[in-house]
């Protein structure tokens, strides 16, 4: 009886060795839970990966928001992972704005935007001022009519400067201005999964 082994009664050392050799999970588990830090969004400073089809100069189709269906020109990707786009405003009414890449279709059409200076635009440029948000309770209930958005002179000047360079590049390509001005829409019988953009 002295030479017989009782199977299934492995201690912590034997369990680790068995798991390493056989590939099976260990039968021994620690009595106390090992505390792991909870995942936090605050510490994640990595910007989302931009799709390879979206590069500066790519013509995008917006899928959501008040400008859905419009074609816009991508100028650059920002640190937050959002895309900086413009209509240009003179062509189709889309101003300089940030767009989430999940809500755009990238087309194979490109515009040369190497001459457009967009170094001054970042996420802080588009941040809302605290004075605009701070509306009191009385003003909220009194005002029935929506207040029109006030665009600063700085924003208007920046829009004109960027649009001048983008329109110059757009007009260099034949029929590009009409393409950007036209809205994208689907009709009965259209099969979007078979379309090549």
What's this model, at a glance?
This protein is 26% helix and 13% strand. By secondary structure, the chain is α+β, with helices and mostly antiparallel strands.
Strand order of the largest sheet: 4-3-2-1-5
Number of helices: 6
Number of strand elements: 5
CA-based gyration radius? 28 Å
Measured between the Cα atoms of the first and last residue, the distance is: 78 Å
Helix content: 25-40%
Mass-distribution shape: extended
Write up what this structure looks like.
- Strand 2 (71-77) and strand 3 form a beta hairpin.
- The longest helix has 20 residues, at 153-172.
- The protein has helices at residues 12-22, 89-92, 130-133, 137-142, 153-172, 176-181; strands at 58-62, 71-77, 83-86, 97-99, 104-110.
- Helix content is 26%, strand content 13%.
- It is extended, with a radius of gyration of 28 Å.
- The protein has 197 residues and is of the alpha+beta class.
- The chain has six helices and five strands.
């Amino acid at each position: 009886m002295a030479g017989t082994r009782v199977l299934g009664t492995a201690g912590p050392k034997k369990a680790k060795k068995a798991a390493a050799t056989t590939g099976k999970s260990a039968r021994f588990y620690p009595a106390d839970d090992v505390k792991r830090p909870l995942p936090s969004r605050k510490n994640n400073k990595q910007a989302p990966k931009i799709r390879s089809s979206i590069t500066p100069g790519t013509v995008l189709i917006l899928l959501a928001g008040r400008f859905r269906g419009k074609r816009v020109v991508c100028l650059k990707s920002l640190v937050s992972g959002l895309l900086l786009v413009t209509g240009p405003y003179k062509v189709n009414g889309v101003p300089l704005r940030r767009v989430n890449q999940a809500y755009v279709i990238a087309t194979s059409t490109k515009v040369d935007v190497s001459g457009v200076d967009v170094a001054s635009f970042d996420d802080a440029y588009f941040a809302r001022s605290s004075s605009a948000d701070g509306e009191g309770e009385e003003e909220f209930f009194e005002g029935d009519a929506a207040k029109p958005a006030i665009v600063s002179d700085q924003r208007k000047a920046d829009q004109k400067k960027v649009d001048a360079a983008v329109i110059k590049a757009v007009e260099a390509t034949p029929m590009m201005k009409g393409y950007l001005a036209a809205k994208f829409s689907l009709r009965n019988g259209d099969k979007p999964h078979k379309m090549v953009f």
